[in-house]
Structures are given as C-alpha cells and as structure tokens.
Amino acid sequence: MAARIDHLVTSGTFSLDGGTWDVDNNVWIVGDDAEAIVIDAAHDAAAIAAALGGRRLVAIVSTHGHDDHIDAAPALAAETGARVLLHPDDLMLWKRRHPGRDPDGALADGQVITVAGTELTVLHTPGHSPGAVCLHAPALGTVFSGDTLFQGGPGATGRSFSDFPTIIASIRDRLLTLPPETVVRTGHGDSTTIGAEAPHLDAWIERGH
To answer: Three-state DSSP class for 154?
Structure first.
C-alpha cells in the first residue's frame, strides 16, 4: 500500500519574546497501515497517538523549534518509542520548552527520510527560524512547509531568531523551484500549491513582511 497523508488539527499556545498566543496547528501523519512519521507533534500527544491507531511510529520530525510545534514531542516519543528529529540550528528554541530533554537526532539539508516506501527529502529553509526545514515528498506531490510558506505568503519574521530576507531566499530558491502543482501542506491553516504562491513573490518582497 502506498503512503497516504493523514491530517489533524490540535490547539494550544505559542510563546516567544514574552508573549503567548492561542494557536491551531496542523499535524501531518505520513505512512501506510503499518508505519508512519509525524510531522510536528503539536499540543496533544494523546490525540496524535490516537490518529496513529497503533501504527509503528518511525520518527517525529520537527519542522522547527517553536514551542507550538514541539510541545507534545517528548510525550509522544515516550509513548511510542519514536525518535524526535530537529535541525540543530533550532536547538536553542527547543531548550526553552524542553530544557532537560534533547532531541534524539539531527535533521540536515538533503537528508532522506523513508516511510512506507516513500521518500521525504529535508530542505533547510531558514528565515522563520534558523533551523526551519520543509519536507518534500515528490511521490506524494507535496511539500510540508512548516511555518516557512503559507497560503498568501511567507511565515512570520517579526520575532527573535527570524529574518525576512532569509525566508524570502529560502522560499525563492528551495520551494518555488518545485513543480507548480506541488501541494504545500502548512503548519497552520489551509494548504495551497507552489503554482498559486509563486506569482506573488515580488509583492511579498515589496511589502517587506
């Protein structure tokens, strides 16, 4: 059986720079009936484990280290035995939420994660955070963009450790070069496609945020 994409939305908070906001996060599960990976274990380990339905969890992949994307990762790892993976450039963000528990492994640009016979390639896309990554699954016609690219523009760059020119370069060089029909499955909100977003790059740059 080919890999499929399951989706659930979990709710919680995001805290950084002294502020806290209520957020809804997309959690993506990629796999078949036997095994899966979780992309961004957000807020509710029990709900994510229920959605896995007893499948073997190959890995918990974190698109970046903001607390709303990693807060449930240690609990889900403890329940399933899966390893938590994070790009090392976001370790300082991780440690703000989980000071006593490091990730189990590092993500690197070009790394390939295989689940249910399907390959997902790690694309290092800094800007929203230094260690932000996206996961490109050509066989599924999709890229999991975390908070790097949304329907309507780049992820936020107004807080610590983020940078607007850097996220624009990441989107231009790493994402908009993907096939236009590629579905962009985001960290929050609705999905989009590369083709729908690509024409707006210059407008985003002009807007400057």
So the answer is: strand
